[in-house]
Q: What sequence folds into this?
């Protein structure tokens, strides 16, 4: 094994893939994860867009591949400080333990927007307003029900909750919410074809491979109905249903609708670790995400010697993008370490 070392902070999709690829080159790798499980946000999902791949299978494949490599894995390890001193990067955890290496790779990822910050939508107030992550948890059980245990006869999905929103300060698009709403609406209609499913949106952004095809299929085969307009208010009725108010901006007409379940498609925000560690090292960009040297050719490098980035600690990415970005970071790190030999 080569005598240079790397610490990878965050064991989500990008962290696992990067650690595996760097270890393949013979370097010593320590993968540090704050939780007691590997997989990051991938662990929250049942199926993945656009092909309904099993999320656990994707996660397990990544972890099984990692297990064949010489990578030290440290779980339940919350890194709170990261600094460069004496030609080494030092990561300090909440117990004041320090891990040192020649290179540090931030793969600290994202967290989801707290829907309680949009009080007008009633999350945390009304039983039958849930988030897209809670929908995923229910879908894993094989059924979708209201808080009262009933199958929804009518369900609504609201895009862009916490994204493209000046009121909460997030002007950016989270990039995955549109296609995730299409996926979840399709899943719901597949389970309950007699029920109604509505998606409320500002714009439908189907930029990925097979996204547009799934969007068309959801309408033509699953009868999902799309309404252009943001929900301005949600309130509970006496029978625990949710009445929503919006405007259909294609017709210019106000719209009221009562649904059994309202699903908020929550966007991505920089995780606390991403925000804190990038700020400590003066590589913080907009909205708390870490800032790379540049999108074109230097997207995994930073202004700091030996400090690299991968995955959605930089900006919202989907899973295939995070995996590809992790491989790119591993190559950049390998080249950097080879030059140190």
A:
């Amino acid at each position: 094994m080569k005598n240079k070392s790397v610490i990878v902070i965050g064991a989500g999709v990008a962290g696992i893939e990067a650690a595996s690829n760097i270890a393949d080159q013979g370097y010593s790798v320590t993968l540090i994860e704050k939780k007691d499980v590997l997989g990051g946000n991938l662990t929250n999902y049942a199926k993945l867009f656009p092909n309904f791949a099993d999320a656990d299978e994707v996660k397990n494949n990544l972890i099984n591949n990692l297990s064949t490599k010489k990578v030290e894995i440290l779980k339940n390890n919350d890194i709170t400080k990261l600094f460069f001193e004496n030609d080494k990067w030092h990561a300090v955890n909440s117990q004041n333990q320090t891990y040192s290496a020649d290179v540090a790779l931030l793969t600290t990822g994202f967290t989801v927007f707290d829907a309680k910050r949009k009080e007008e939508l009633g999350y945390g107030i009304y039983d039958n307003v849930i988030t897209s992550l809670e929908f995923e948890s229910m879908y894993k059980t094989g059924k979708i029900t209201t808080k009262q245990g009933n199958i929804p006869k009518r369900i609504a999905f609201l895009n862009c909750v916490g994204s493209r929103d000046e009121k909460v300060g997030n002007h950016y698009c989270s990039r995955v919410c549109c296609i995730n709403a299409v996926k979840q609406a399709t899943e719901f209609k597949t389970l309950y074809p007699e029920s109604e499913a509505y998606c409320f949106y500002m714009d439908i952004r189907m930029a990925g491979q097979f996204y547009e095809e799934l969007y068309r299929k959801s309408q033509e085969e699953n009868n999902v109905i799309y309404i252009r307009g943001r929900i301005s208010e949600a309130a509970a009725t006496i029978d625990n249903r949710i009445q929503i108010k919006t405007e259909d901006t294609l017709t210019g007409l106000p719209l009221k609708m009562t649904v059994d379940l309202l699903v908020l498609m929550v966007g991505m925000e920089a995780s606390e670790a991403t925000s804190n560690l990038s700020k400590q090292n003066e590589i913080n960009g907009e909205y708390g995400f870490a800032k790379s040297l540049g999108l074109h050719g230097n997207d995994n490098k930073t202004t700091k010697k030996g400090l690299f980035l991968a995955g959605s600690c930089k900006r919202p990415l989907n899973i295939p993008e995070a995996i590809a970005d992790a491989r790119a970071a591993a190559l950049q790190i390998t080249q950097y370490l080879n030059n140190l030999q």
The radius of gyration is 22 Å.
